[in-house]
Every structure is written in structure tokens, then in C-alpha cells.
Write a structure and sequence with these properties.
Blueprint lengths: L5 E9 L5 E5 L2 E5 L7 E9 L3 E11 L25 H20 L19 E7 L2 E5 L6 E3 L9 H16 L13 E9 L2 E8 L7 H9 L5 E7 L12 E5 L4 E5 L2 E5 L9 H13 L5 E6 L5 H7 L4 E6 L2 H13 L5 E5 L2 H12 L5 E6 L8 H10 L3 E6 L2 H11 L3 E9 L9 E8 L2
Parallel strand pairs: 3-5, 10-11, 15-16, 15-18, 16-17, 18-19
Antiparallel strand pairs: 1-2, 1-4, 2-3, 4-5, 6-7, 6-9, 7-8, 9-10, 11-12, 13-14, 19-21, 20-21
């Protein structure tokens, strides 16, 4: 097989990145935006040792599950991967991705049906868009080429209004956009978040101060009744978006909201899942499986929201978080909500966990461990600490099936899997959230 050759290929599966998989004489070809069962003509773009990449030239036989993507940027922008597939089938594909990925490490596993989002579009409460000399938009997949956009259907219409306002501000003030090659230009990223009916807007700048801020406040005020405006100074020559140098120019420095009767506060660099409906489905599931005699250890506890939610059901909760500012925020959260049965511990989970579980195991209470690590999964030392500490059960929340599979392989030497349940946190995209419950082997 060579680059620029044309083949007629049947798509036999969908891969982890949402792309179609076909074969030519047992040689695997990945072709984005194709669906299982389709026969397509493809142009080969790149050939590696064991596989190739192609693009659609035309569809010879179309899948009955193919739909017309509503987004005009879909085939260009790198934000979505599955808009061309009926939503019910997206859920099946995501379940299969989790199942196939885990099987490689664990052998046969049973995966529950994927829990659907209540919204297929307009579910995101946050967007962050790069601003470069080539425009404001989204990067093409696996590149830093900007696809300029006016709107994103994964958010509600407010994002379109915000993008329009930023462009009006740029035109009115001649604000320069960032050039990655020579590290010049002021505006690097724009971030926007909607929490309830309040908006938070942040401009990331390659400068000490946002120029002509009053003009931007005037423009935004025409369309948004309640908003806060921030700028974030970022002069670092890498892909970091937010730094800790954030200044509130207008409105409140934090936004408050309520989940599970817990009032909490959000700032521009606070973590909040982009799909709160699915976030709360996961938290509700974990909470429902706890009882009043359980002690819960919330590893990777962040600013303490999940710890606070679980405290409503559990006897005692311990939150472990390595970032000191996050632990301080968690302490403030508990104090504000008058929660007395949560203890926040600042430190490395790998060091704290074994001693903590050993101390707690002296009581008659069951110990549940909640893991919600970043995409890279659990640190090797944390997994070792868990297998030494042996809490009674584990709830593992994962946003990456590959690292989940790796970690479960180690944990299942001491634990049995009770259930594996995917949640569609990110409709129209390849991404999937998974909740796994494990019980200590008897």
C-alpha cells in the first residue's frame, strides 16, 4: 500500500477515536467519518508499518445509521467525531469502546449500557477557544491549524453571542492576536462558562494588562445581563492555557451554584465537569451505594465537591489532595456548608493512603475508596498503596478507557469487579466517562 492510492473498502468496526476501521488484504486502514457496514472509496493519506490512514472520496454503500451533521464545521473542526452517527448508536459505540479496551487487559468483561445524556447538543457549560493570527476557533484534530468558528452546537446560543462580542472588541480596539512562532500578539485564548444564569468570561493574554477593558465591558453588557470578566496573564511559551495570574475586571470573582444541597463557588480556574447532568448521575450512583456506617476516602479530591456530596450519606469522609490551594478551597467549602464529617488532608495519596486505611481498619466500619484521577490514570505508587491498604471497595471514575484498563489489571489481583458502567459525558465526541465498582476479594 502506498500514499495517494485509491481503494474500495468495507468498514468493519469503529475505533477508539470514532474513526472507521477497514482492511485491505489484512492491512488495517483508519478512515474518519465512516461507519460500520459502509463501503467507501478512500484515498490513502499516510502509510505506517502496520496501518494506514485514509479519507473518504465517496460512499458506495451508506449505513442506515448515518445522519446529516447539523454543525457546518463538523468535518473540519477537531471538537466532534460522531455527529454523523445516530445518537442511540453513539451510545452503543461508546459501550463497545470501553468493552474492547478493557478486554485487552482483563479478558472477558461485562459492560452495562451507556447512560445517555439528557441533552445531545447544548450540554456544555464551558468552552475554551484559541485565538491566533489565523482567527478564533478550534484546532483541527492533531494540529494547531485554526478552524475559525462563529458558534459551537455543543454549547447553547450564548457562545455564539460571546464570540461575536469578542470579535467586535478586536475590531474596535485593534487588539492583536497571538502568533505562536514568534510569541507576539496579545490575545491567546478566550474562555467562557455559564453556571445557572451567570456567565464568566476570561481572556488569556500575552501582556501584563488587558487594554481598553471598558470597551469590552460595554460590548458584553449589551447582550449579557449578569456576567464576570477576567483576564489571565500567560507569557509562557507552551500549550498551558491558564496560569494563577488571574484578575477580575468586572462582576463577582466567583460564581455560586448548588448541587445535592451543597452550595459551592467557582472561579475561572476551578474544575467543573462540562456536562453537569451526567456528573450528577455519576455522583448520585456512588452516593446511593453508600450507607451510614461507611467511611469514604476521596482520593484526588480537588476542591472537595464530591467529598461534600458523599458526606450526606457516609459516616465520615477523608479527602486527599496534593494541591494545597485545592485543599484550602475544600476546607472553605465544608465550613460554608456546615459539614462536620469531612476531613481534608493535603498531601500525596500514595504516602497517606496506607497509613490512613490501617488506622481506619481498626474500627468495624467498611472503608470505600473513590478514585477520580486525571486522564493519565492513577500513579503507580497510588495503585501500590491501594493493594497494600486493601479498602473494602473502590469506586473508580475514569475519563480514559485505556488508562482505566491498565489500572484495573493491577487492582483486580485483589478486587472483583462488581459493575462497569459508561456515561455519555461528551455526546457527539469520542470521549466517554466510566464508573467501575470493585469489591475486595474474600
Amino acid at each position: 500500500m502506498k500514499k495517494n492510492e485509491i481503494y474500495e473498502i468495507e468498514i468493519i468496526d469503529i475505533g477508539n477515536n470514532g474513526e472507521g476501521i477497514g482492511k485491505v488484504d489484512d492491512f488495517v486502514v483508519f478512515i474518519p467519518y465512516t461507519l460500520k457496514g459502509e463501503i467507501i472509496k478512500t484515498l490513502i493519506l499516510k502509510v505506517n508499518k502496520n496501518f494506514a490512514y485514509g479519507k473518504i472520496l465517496n460512499i458506495v454503500k451508506q449505513s442506515e445509521f448515518r445522519v446529516e451533521p447539523p454543525c457546518p464545521y463538523f468535518y473540519k473542526c477537531g471538537g466532534c467525531n460522531l455527529q454523523h452517527l445516530q445518537y442511540a448508536k453513539q451510545l452503543v459505540v461508546k459501550k463497545n469502546i470501553v468493552e474492547t479496551t478493557l478486554k485487552k487487559q482483563l479478558g472477558e468483561v461485562e459492560v452495562k449500557d451507556c447512560v445517555a445524556s439528557n441533552l445531545q447538543y447544548a450540554y456544555r457549560n464551558k468552552m475554551q477557544l484559541p485565538a491566533t493570527i489565523n482567527g478564533i476557533g478550534m484546532f483541527r484534530e492533531n494540529s494547531h491549524d485554526i478552524v475559525e468558528i462563529e458558534n459551537c452546537l455543543l454549547c447553547d446560543n450564548w457562545i455564539q453571542t460571546f464570540i461575536k462580542n469578542i470579535k467586535l472588541f478586536i475590531q474596535a480596539t485593534n487588539l492583536t492576536l497571538y502568533d505562536e512562532e514568534n510569541h507576539k500578539g496579545v490575545l491567546r485564548h478566550i474562555l467562557a462558562r455559564k453556571v445557572d444564569n451567570n456567565y464568566s468570561f476570561t481572556l488569556v493574554i500575552n501582556a501584563e494588562k488587558l487594554p481598553k477593558e471598558d470597551k469590552l465591558i460595554e460590548i458584553l453588557s449589551n447582550d449579557f445581563e449578569s456576567f464576570s470578566l477576567f483576564y489571565c496573564v500567560n507569557k509562557i511559551k507552551n500549550n498551558t492555557i491558564l496560569t494563577n495570574n488571574i484578575v477580575c475586571l468586572y462582576g463577582n470573582a466567583t460564581q455560586n451554584t448548588v448541587d445535592f444541597e451543597i452550595e459551592y463557588f467557582i472561579s475561572p480556574n476551578s474544575f467543573l465537569q462540562v456536562n453537569r447532568y451526567i456528573q450528577n448521575c455519576i455522583y448520585q450512583k456512588i452516593q446511593s451505594l453508600l450507607n451510614s456506617n461507611q467511611i469514604v476516602i476521596d482520593a484526588y479530591s480537588g476542591a472537595g465537591l464530591l467529598s461534600a456530596i458523599l458526606s450526606k450519606k457516609a459516616k465520615q469522609v477523608y479527602g486527599i489532595e496534593i494541591v494545597k490551594s485545592a485543599t484550602e478551597n475544600a476546607e472553605a467549602l465544608m465550613k460554608h456548608n456546615k459539614i462536620a464529617n469531612v476531613k481534608n488532608i493535603n498531601g500525596d495519596c500514595a504516602l497517606i493512603l496506607p497509613t490512613l486505611v490501617e488506622d481506619l481498619s481498626k474500627s468495624e466500619d467498611n472503608i470505600s475508596l473513590v478514585l477520580d484521577p486525571p486522564r493519565k490514570g492513577c500513579d503507580e505508587k497510588v495503585l501500590e498503596a491501594i493493594t497494600l491498604a486493601k479498602p473494602n471497595e473502590i469506586f473508580y471514575i475514569s475519563c480514559n478507557p485505556s488508562t482505566l484498563a491498565r489500572d484495573l489489571k493491577k487492582l483486580t489481583t485483589s478486587y472483583d469487579i462488581e459493575f462497569i458502567e459508561p456515561y455519555d459525558m461528551f455526546p457527539q465526541t469520542k470521549h466517554i466517562e466510566t464508573l467501575v465498582r470493585l469489591k475486595l476479594k474474600k
